[in-house]
Amino acid sequence: MKRPCALLRFLYQFVLRLATPIGLLLLRVRFRGLANVPKKGPYILCSNHRCVLDPFTIAMGIPQHLYYMAKSELFTNHGSVAAALLRAVGAFPVHRDSADLQSLHTAEAILKRGDSLGIFPQGRVVFDNTPFRPKSGAVLLAARTGMPILPVSIWCEGPWKFGKRVTVRIGSLLPAKTFSGADKDRRLLRRCAALLADQINHQLEKGHAS
């Protein structure tokens, strides 16, 4: 997919930065590990998924314009205007629970042109603190493109709701060599996905700690 035009990217970032102080106040979001965010991309940001506002929550602390894989239902079930807005800010559809080669190729193209990608590899919102168990798509993409993964965790006590404290913790960048060869070896792919799960679960275990 093409980048949104420069005007749309500017408007998106302008509105986002204006809304960030309000969002931080209303959502009670605190960031940990912002120094781990690369100064520039490309990289793959992987996070657990606690609520539908997670892309906005993460974007409040990440300076780069992230392009997100989003479930295809968001593009088909909410009207053409919603679909157009999603595409305008760089989101693109992925068909869950299937081998969606088109979305994989779109993600590869985004990374190869130098942009960063956001993925929630659980494939759905998980409303409680169930341990993070990612599908292997993000690791497969990292192996195919030679890109590093930035592990992010979103923690709140119990089910998320407005006014509840939220901690977004950004871990150390996992270098591309960590995932080398995983696209050609299924067992290695599973081990790399388990490594990513361990990293994000370790971050979640810290809760709201500084």
Automatic annotation (TrEMBL):
<feature type="domain" description="Phospholipid/glycerol acyltransferase">
    <location>
        <begin position="43"/>
        <end position="157"/>
    </location>
</feature>
<protein>
    <submittedName>
        <fullName>Lysophospholipid acyltransferase family protein</fullName>
    </submittedName>
</protein>
<dbReference type="GO" id="GO:0003841">
    <property type="term" value="F:1-acylglycerol-3-phosphate O-acyltransferase activity"/>
</dbReference>
<keyword id="KW-0808">Transferase</keyword>
<keyword id="KW-0012">Acyltransferase</keyword>
<dbReference type="GO" id="GO:0006654">
    <property type="term" value="P:phosphatidic acid biosynthetic process"/>
</dbReference>
<dbReference type="InterPro" id="IPR002123">
    <property type="entry name" value="Plipid/glycerol_acylTrfase"/>
</dbReference>
<dbReference type="Pfam" id="PF01553">
    <property type="entry name" value="Acyltransferase"/>
</dbReference>
